[in-house]
Amino acid sequence: MTEKAHYEFLWEKIKERAEKIATPIGYNTYVEPLVPVDLINKKIVLRAETEIAASTIEKSFRGKLREAISAAEVGLNDFIVVVDGSDTYTVHEEADALQEAEPVALDKRYTFDSFVVGSSNKFVYAAAKSVAEAPGENFNPLYIYGGTGLGKTHLMQAIANEITIKKPTLKVLYTTSEKFLNEYVDSMYAKKGAGRDNEIRFRNRYRNVDVLIIDDVQFWAGKYGVQEAFFHTFNELSAQNKQIVISSDCPAKDLTTLEERLRTRFEGGLIADIQPPDTETKVAILKRKALEKKYVIPEEVLSFLVRGSDNNVRTLEGRLNKVIFASKLHEAPITLALAATALQESVNVEEQEELTPEAIIRATISYYSITRADLLGKSKRQEFVRARQICTYLMCEMLSLPLVTIGKEMGGRDHATVIHSRDKVTELLRVNDAIAKGVNDIKSIVLKQ
Q1: Residue 129 CA to its chain's centroid (Å)
Q2: Fewer CB within 10 Å, N or C, the chain?
Q3: Edge-to-edge strands of the sheet including 43-48?
C-alpha cells in the first residue's frame, strides 16, 4: 500500500464515524470534500479547497472530527487542516518541530555477566558476545528474534554496555524502533515547516555512528516511509563496516509487511533465535534474580515457582517478587506454604496445563458470551472489537509467541493490528476500571482451565 493509499484508508475509516456524528448538510458541505495528504505526529493532515472551508472546519467541526478520529481507533489523535495550494503546515508548527533527540538510556544491569545462559539461548549469547568483542567484523548485521520476555532487550543492551566500556572511542547508539519511527515522522514534518534542517539532523544522528542497535523492528510493519529511511541508513552503515544489531519477535522471512529489500539485508547477516527457557534455565534465572535482591530461596520453592509458569522471564520474576513481598509483609521465612499462599495456589494441585492461544480464546468467548465467529471475524460491532482487542492483549502478555503467530490465531490479522490491539488495551487499563476487571477475570478463567 502506498503512503497516499494509506492516508485515504485511514480517512475513510474516520469519515464513516464523522458521518454518524455531524449533520448531513455539514458533513456533505465541509467534511466530505477534505482530502488526506499526510500523517504528522499521530495527526492526519487534511487539505481544504478554500480558506473559508478550512476556517469553518476549525471553528465548527473540530470537536466532532476529533470524536470521529477517536471512535475510528486508527491510532491517530487529531487533525490539521491546510488550504489547497499551500506547501507548508502552519498549525502547531513550533510545538511539533523536531527537538534534539534524547538517546535511549541504557540499563547498566543488562550485562553479559547478568544474563543467564542455558541450552535455549547459548547460541545467541555467543553471537552477541562475539559482536561486542569485534564490532563490524563478525556477523553484520546480527538479527536476534524470539518471543516476549525471553531476553532480547537484555542482550541488545549488553552489547551496547560492553562496547561502551571496553571500546570507549566507538560511538554506540541503542534505540527502539518506535523511537526511530517517531523521530523520522517529526523530521518529515519539520522539513515542511520552519525547521528545514531537521531531516539532515535525523539522518546524521543515525548514520554517524559506529554501532547501531535497534529493538523490535516488527513495529515498522506497513510503515513504508520509515522502512525507506532505515534502508538507506542500513546501506550507509554497512558500506562503512559499521555494526548493526536488530531484534524482532519473529524470523526475518516472516516479516512479510516489511519490504523485500529490507528483509534480504537482515537475512544477509547472522540470524539467531532465543528459544523459551527449559526448567533448569528457569530455576537458574530465579536464583540469579533472588541473589540480586539478596535472598536465598529454597530449591523446593524455586521448583514450585517454575511449575505451571509460562515462558516469559518477566512473568517468572513477577512470581518471585510476590513471594518476597509476602515474606516481608508477614515477616516470615520463605517456605513452600508461604509461596503457595502468596500465589493463591495449592501445592498439591496437579501441574497446570500449558497455556495456549486456544485457552485464551475459549475464556474470552465464555466471559463475553459471544461466539468464536464473533471474536475472530470481521464484525466492527464495538463489543466484538473490544473482546477481540482484549483477547489479543492477553495472548501478547501471557504467551511467548511472535506477533505473526498471534495474528494468525486471531483470525489472520497482521502485525499492525496485533500491535494496535495490544497498545490500545494497555492504554485503557490505566483509565478504565471495567476493562481492567474484564482482563483480570478472563486471566483467572484461563489459569483455572
Answers
A1: 25
A2: N
A3: 35-40, 43-48, 78-83
Side chain identity at 174, as an amino acid letter? Y
How far apart (Å, rounded) are the C-alpha atoms in residues 9 and 3? 10
β-bridge pairing 43-48 and 78-83? parallel
From 233, 195, 197, 192, select the one nearest 212 (Cα to Cα). 233
CA angle 64, 425, 364 (to 5 degrees): 120
Contacts 24+ apart (CB under 8 A), 107-113: 107/157, 108/161, 110/153, 110/154, 110/157, 110/158, 110/161, 111/158, 111/161, 111/162, 112/158, 112/162
User: Which parts of 92-171 are beta strand (E)?
Assistant: 142-146
Please, which residues have CB within 8 angstroms of residue 62's CB and are 6 or more apart in sequence? none
pLDDT digits over 98-134, tens only? 444 456 678 888 999 888 888 888 899 999 999 999 9
The DSSP output letter for 269 is: S
For residue 4, pLDDT over 70 is answered with no
Cβ contacts of 208 within 8 Å, gap of 6 or more: 171
At 429 the three-state DSSP class reads helix
